[in-house]
Design brief:
Order of helices and strands: EHEHEHEHEHEHEHH
Distance between the termini: 18 Å
CATH topology of the largest domain: Rossmann fold
Number of helices: 8
CATH class of the largest domain: Alpha Beta
Helix content: 40-55%
Structural class: alpha/beta
Largest sheet: 4 strands, parallel
Amino acid sequence: MKVSKPGILVISHGSRENRWVRRVEEAVAEAGELLPEQLPMEAAYLELVQGRLIQDGIDRLHEAGTNELIVIPLFVSSGSTHVQEIGWALGAIAEPGIETDLPRFQIHQEKLIYGKPIGADPEIAEVLLDRFAELSTAPNRECLLLIGHGSEHAGFHEAYQQEMRQLAAAVQARGGYADAETAMLRPDSVAAMVNRLRERHPDHEILAVPLFVSEGYFTGEVIRKRLQDLNCRYDGRTLLPHPLMAHWIARQANALLTV
């Protein structure tokens, strides 16, 4: 009987900013230390990180002697078109759901298991609870605004929206906040959601937190510009760095290793 030799590939979007990439790499390294045994583990990126792209990660795990490929998509939502197109390019999904220019990847391993993105995972709600708490002074007189990238594609938009709403509702209930809404950058609903909260709670403060894996252009520039003159508390802190993110990656890996 052939011995199983799994390798774990954590795929995220990628960025030109070294800090963005470094935080992902650190979380993946921490997750590796949480696994019950030392397994080959690689972080790889959809784009922008030369030498660390998805095919590079597949190849490195093959060179490490793996014959099973466990893939964890480190994306915030199943409404991300990237999750679908990467799954298709890996051969794990029959149709990408949208038009894609990704080529098919060359899989050397005999078995591939494709995991799920963050979605409405309760562990991530705990991360967001901490992020909102960092901005909060009086939860019962504060409203939450969770801001994600979003999608304009039918089906993807609805999935993004549903998962964000579940996360926001969980944080509101756990933190004792007065109200919560979600907004997307695509299509742009930030100002509309801020106005909706103000109509319901004119005397309350609004705390805005980004639902993004790591800090970068969207959290540092785009969201700040959308919130300009809307009088919200915002510091741009993302899911990373947070210790629970490494736990999330390790938990996904452990679950997929038993499939």
